[in-house]
Predict the structure.
Amino acid sequence: MKFGKDMLAKALALSVPLLVFFSLTAWAEEEGPVPAPEGFMAFVVVIPLILIIVLLILHVDMLVAGLAGGVLAMLAGGLTLADANAELLSTIPSMLANTVPILNSAIAMAVFKSGGYTAALVLVRRLIKDKTWVMAAFIIVLQAAATYMSGIGGGSAMVIAPLAFAALGAIPELIAGMSIATAACFTTSPASLESSVVSQITGGEVTAYVANMQPFTLLFVVISIVLASWGAFKRNALFTSEDDGQFEGMGNGEVFKYCIPTIYLLAAVILGPVINPLVAPILGHGILIPFVNMVVTVALVILCTKFTVNEASGALVDGSSYILTRLFGVGIFLTFINLIEKLGAFTVIVNLAQGAPVFLLVPAMVLAGFAIGFPAGAYVASILGLILPIAHGLGFSLFEIGLVTMGVGFGSQISYVNITMQALASGFQIDISEVVKGNLKWVSAAFALLFVLAIIF
């Protein structure tokens, strides 16, 4: 692909003079709703979108693919450099304004670095003795909780997969269970980039989206727990190593102290939407709010682990870098998508889709998300930037858009280029093709259930 990517970069560079020319000569257009292009133009305006999808499937970098489609859209529609600049300067701030996901992700990464999740695994192993199926179940719970709190599936897997391998070995059902739980959690997490994209495109609140999707998140986590436990029991798995060296010599009570920040943060993230409305009439605001969660969690890290004040605050700041850089990247990508939208491309697609039976619209979009997520799942947020505007244009509710988002997440868990898949392959010390092969049956079954639920609901 190197030659192809180099040629694409050169083609984009050569297009700059054309863009400058169009910028100087383009006609002024009045602001207003984007009309639906007709005739041959209805086909032309969709081509940039098709180009982006093809390039993503060919594993071209998200921003390069977006730029290629954006340049083509500008040339086809007579959009100027001023249009592109205005779109860029409005889209990036709107993405970076998703402060709740940024804060939650940073707090969770601080807990990661302090050893909270490792301590939980060590403690459970000491308590359950030889019941390896219980350990398999707990690994799923920990992976789901870590992903839900941080919004980062790959980051959670990088920490937990090596510990899981050290404890139980490479059990296919355990790996598949971690993948399914990860997809269900990062696509519906209050801290995830994906939830931010949903909020930015639909205009809905992240908290409302998360609350809508919680029953489905819980359903697939329970399915993952059952799958992993069954796999460990069926294969007569044995523990493969001793406790993590970091906690060697510590008593159970001291190890449990390391878990306290994890327990608090998980409780705050999950119970906040329930408790806050109850106390708001009394206090005038919620109690499990981002500021409180940040201060209390960092204080617990300092009190319950070996982290100093400086180390805890440093971990908090460093923990924000992952989601901030990705929000910035998605902001650039969505700039190009918005340029395509200015041509009326999404209006064309919506008009076509409206001809289908109403009961098929949601499952069809869920299937489309899964189908694109499989080859192009390196960056789920970029796929959402492509298909969610279409779903939103079709009048999908926040819940229905959540089903589409989860479908993309499941597709990414059988993708060779997905970071969670790569983390699992590395952590369990197997080739990524083995992860894909082992996941294919179980992830596809989970998606089949999601597809049926999309038809029912």
Observations:
- DSSP finds 22 helices and no strands in the chain.
- The CA atoms of residues 73 and 270 lie 42 Å apart.
- Confidence is low (pLDDT under 50) at residues 20-33.
- Residues 99-319 form one domain.
